[in-house]
Amino acid sequence: MEKIKNIPSRPGVYIMKDREGQVIYIGKAKDLKKRVSSYFQKRFIERKTEALVSRIDAIETIITDNEIEALILESTLIKKHRPKFNIELKDNYKYPYIKITKDIFPQLMKTRIKKDDGSLYFGPYPNVKYINRTLKTITDIFPIRRCGRKFEAGKVTSPCINYYMGKCICPLSGKIGSAEYRNLVDQVVLFLKGQNTQLLSQIKREMEQEAEKRNYEKAIYLRERFTALKKILEDQKVSTEGGEDQDIFGISNIRDTSNVTLLIKRGGKLVGKRDFLVTNPSGEEDVLGRFLALYYAGSSEPVLENRQPSQAEFPDEVPVASPKEIILPFRVEGMLTLKSFFQQRYGKSVLLCIPQKGMKKRLVDLANKNAVQKIKEQLFRYNPQSSLVELKNVLGLSRIPRLIEGFDVATLLGSFSVASMVRFRDALPDKKSYRRFKIRFVSEQNDVEMLKEAVARRYQRLVNEKKKLPDMILVDGGKPQVNAVNGVLEDLGLSDIPLIGLAKQQEEIFPHGERDPIVMEKRSDALRLLMAIRNEAHRFANTYHVKIRGKEAIFSKLKEIPGIGNALLEKILSSGVPLNGDVSHEALKKIEGIGEKRAQQITRLLREMKRNPGEK
Q: Tens digits of per-residue pLDDT, 7-30?
């Protein structure tokens, strides 16, 4: 399938859907790319998976930081969606539960049948190996009984082997009272519920009480339990103890398209992920701020201009509601207005957080990773091999264009311009070969001249250094851009390199020398490849926006210093001097137009902003 090549080699959960968009299978993997690819390797396909593979129309992924998180999330999603093929692919068994019976001396067991019998059930768990490991961990730390003997039959005179291995205290032998055993069972329940802080506190308290009573043997026993339990508890982001209701947002932008990813946590557990693909042709900068206003105002389908249908992992999951906390990747406009809105609509306040470190920062990073992955899925939806063959045939090239370079330009902060060059080798990004060009010789806002400068500098250098030239060049634009760039290539003696332009309105292809543009099917692999190159060049040019986003607030403050305007700001940005509290005024003095006095003013301002980051 097309989408497999864009799936990351990271831990996570994969969600398979049919043509109707129904979830038909959910799985977890340590390596998503490897696991999903295995479904489509014919020699490995078992009969029981053939029916599934034949119905797969789309594959969604949710990235996690480790396999344990993926496992917990997989369980949550399966319980929510109950996909048909999850059951069929596991030999039609029901998912197992961990059961604690309601006996006088409760038994810990695994079962696939959930009854209304007063027992406690935890699960279901889709991974049998995991449930077996969990049961082993419990009995290693908490010596609760697992045998099926009945207390009504009388006291047991011959304990099972678990007793002699120290994994069961054999309550049926009468060596422990029901109250003490019940306390042990309650600790197991806390463990299975994930209430680890409470559990550790309880064991520590009991340990201290036994030590005060000078029951040192019992205190040491409890200390060993405390130490063993603390060692195995892994810091989890997907399933935390705090019980917070949080909405965590991430965003990724390519050209006039943004993907906003929302991770939904309820009761401390990640219960949903939604992706909203939004087009923004007006170029509005505060896409996320606008999105939040529309989303929480009551629309479950946020719209900027020319909205695309939202991509929702959980269409029936959690309605738009007031979380206790909204975690954002950066500051957006209208944050105070948003807080006031929550107070008026829901009668309670909401915390808006832009974390810099710790658990919340990791959650935001996770949302951003998923947003980036979603954008990649939208961009690189083509077959690499067939796209190149099709491109050769459509353009009438003498050979397959295995090496393609694409160009774009971007203007930052209204004045600072940069061009980008991306290289695709065998239809895939060759990122180590990407280049940026700070525009030096074009002062006015003229994209065509900027493009000419970047192309001239790129290929003059390749010619001088006798390095490999591309098989084809792609520029963002139509005939004006193509003709201008061809003039540069002719001057360099490189006019034999195939040159095309891709216009973004109708995605028309403008080969140099052709009178009319070529219009290809939207689903064409060749067109999708060209769009991917064009969009990647745009993304690479505009990553400067990401790098300097934090600098915009600094620039705003710097403009308050008399005599500092856009021209000086451009010189500061071009100089490469780091804009942080550690910069010396000596380094600033070397920048033309700054001088001693302004350098000292800038230094004081930057140090003050570093001490009080919230005042940016």
A: 888 888 999 988 888 888 888 888
**Count of residues in the chain:** 616
Q: For residue 512, what is the domain's CATH number? A: 3.30.420.340
**Residue 364, both tokens:** 């935001």
* CB contact at 8 A, 369 and 273: no
Name the residue range of residue 585's domain. 559-615
Q: Helix or strand or coil: residue 440?
A: coil
How many structural domains compose the chain?
Answer: 5
For residue 97, what are the β-bridge partners?
111
pLDDT at 439: 86
Query: Residue 294: what residue type?
Result: L
Render pLDDT for 328-364 as a digit per residue (tens, 0 to 9). 999 887 788 778 777 766 667 889 999 988 889 989 9
Location of structure tokens 């269409």: 315
Backbone torsions φ then ψ of 129, nearest 5 degrees? -60, -40
User: C-alpha angle with apex 145: 142 to 149, nearest 5 degrees?
Assistant: 175
Q: Which residues are CB-neighbours of 54 under 8 A, at least 6 positions away? A: none
Least confident interval from 10-14, 155-159, 449-453, 576-580: 576-580
Which of 421, 343, 228 lies closest to 352, judged by CA?
Answer: 343
